[in-house]
Design goal:
The chain contains 17 helices and eleven strands. By secondary structure, the protein is an alpha/beta fold. It binds NADPH dihydro-nicotinamide-adenine-dinucleotide phosphate (NDP).
Length: about 400
């Protein structure tokens, strides 16, 4: 099987690399990364890739040097990422973080490749476009987010028309029990430490604000074509049940598993087969207790904002994600506080409400990119005002 991995040097990328390294039937077409060229070169040598691409032009020489004598082609820059996605392959992992992951995955669909989609921003920003592109090329998108993989698995052999509701779980993040006053002082180090999952820094902080769950609610709506009111979120601190599907006969099918992304990645890699995977087996007796609680919209407004975005539709998902990315950058840079992130996203959407483009149907990557840029500009401007005036 020919495979390519976009975002190979990240958390999902490393888990994918681990699974690919255990197989002897894999032909690696392209591996891509960002600034971590040393690791990218190691992976490319180890999997004997045809091509290694860094997203950054200024990393080209370092990557070339690290791969000298290997015979592996080297390229750099955004166009090179797209060209890599256009190389014929059978299976593509989309694991670049952020809106930058959309275009390569979109291009890969045109080759008819199976797209293993970890990059949730793709469905949030351009869901209808992506799903149409997959149908047009008879390509398949397989969800890799653990919740969506869980729903996908629970739906196997079922009629989507018999689905009443889908419940996705949230760990609640490191601040699940914190008061609003405590949240006001939450630091970057505290937000970047997840209680149950080991993930990249950005998604970890998004889990602390529940923006990650907000993106996943929109992702669920786009991938499974459900009505917003059919999608529920519950907080489940142990992260053992990833999602449940409720059917019209009252049955609830739950997917349980250890919090290890190699399960969802491996499922997408082997689909429609189930192959043995090197993940821990659950000991339910030792776990003893699984607990659940309702999310608190007052302390964590991200879920409410996701509902508004689903009502608005059109380019609201792109604007929401762009504002969230800016808010995250500003928080990481120490310019705004933890709770300011949701405030900034809300203010950005509000200021875009009078813009007709916000609710226009998503027709092309270009309109998504334009909304992404517009929302980024507004959010950046609003953030600088928040910094100077205090939110
Ligand atoms: P990481 O930050 O760990 O890795 C991101 C990858 O993307 C790295 O390879 C990085 O390169 C590369 N990258 C960063 N910026 C750019 C850019 N502008 N252009 C091209 N490549 C870039 O992220 P994760 O692995 O945690 O997450 C990846 C995606 O998967 C996200 O969309 C996330 O929401 C989703 N996801 C992640 C889960 C997890 O467990 N981590 C679970 C479910 C979904 P480098 O590091 O070399 O700079």
């Amino acid at each position: 099987m020919r495979v390519s991995v976009f975002g190979a040097t990240g958390s999902i990328g490393e888990s994918t690399f681990d699974l690919l390294s255990r197989r002897d039937d894999i032909e690696t077409v392209a591996l891509t990364g960002g600034r971590n060229v040393t690791r990218l070169a190691q992976q490319a040598r180890s999997l004997n890739a045809q091509l290694a691409v860094t997203a950054h032009d200024d990393c080209y020489q370092a990557l070339k040097q690290a791969l000298s004598g290997s015979g592996i082609e080297v390229a750099a820059g955004t166009d090179a990422l797209i060209a890599a996605a256009e190389r014929p392959t059978d299976w593509v992992m989309s694991a670049i973080v952020g809106a930058a992951g959309l275009a390569p995955g979109f291009r890969a669909l045109a080759q008819g490749a199976t797209l293993a989609l970890a990059n949730k921003e793709s469905l949030v920003t351009a869901g209808p476009l992506l799903m149409r592109e997959a149908a047009r090329h008879n390509a398949r998108i397989l969800p890799v987010d653990s919740e969506h993989s869980a729903v996908f698995q629970a739906l196997t052999g079922e009629d989507i028309a018999a689905v009443e509701r889908v419940i996705i779980t949230a760990s609640g993040g490191p601040f699940r029990t914190w008061s609003k006053a405590q949240l006001a002082g939450a630091s970057l180090a505290q937000a970047a430490k997840h209680p149950t999952w080991d993930m990249g820094q950005r998604i970890t902080i998004d889990s602390a604000t529940l923006f990650n769950k907000a993106l996943e609610v929109i992702e669920t709506r786009e991938y499974f074509d459900l009505r917003p009111e059919q999608i529920e979120v519950i907080v489940h601190p142990q992260s053992i049940i990833h999602a449940l599907v409720g059917f019209r006969d009252g049955a609830l099918m739950a997917h349980l598993g250890a919090p290890d992304m190699r399960h969802a990645i491996g499922y997408a890699l082997n689909w429609p087969e189930r192959a043995a995977l090197p993940v821990a087996r659950l000991d339910l007796v030792q776990l003893a207790q699984l607990s659940f609680e309702a999310p608190d919209p007052d302390r964590f407004p991200a879920l409410r904002l996701a509902r508004e975005v689903m009502e608005l539709r059109g380019h609201a998902g792109a604007a929401f994600n762009a504002a969230k990315e800016v808010a995250l950058d500003e928080f990481i840079a120490g310019h705004i506080g933890f709770q300011d992130m949701a405030l900034l996203v809300e203010r950005t959407i509000d200021s875009l409400l009078s813009n007709s483009g916000l609710t226009d149907a998503v027709e092309s990557l270009e309109t998504v990119a334009a909304m992404n840029q517009m929302a980024r500009d507004i959010a950046t401007r609003l953030a600088s005002r928040m910094t100077s005036l205090g939110a």
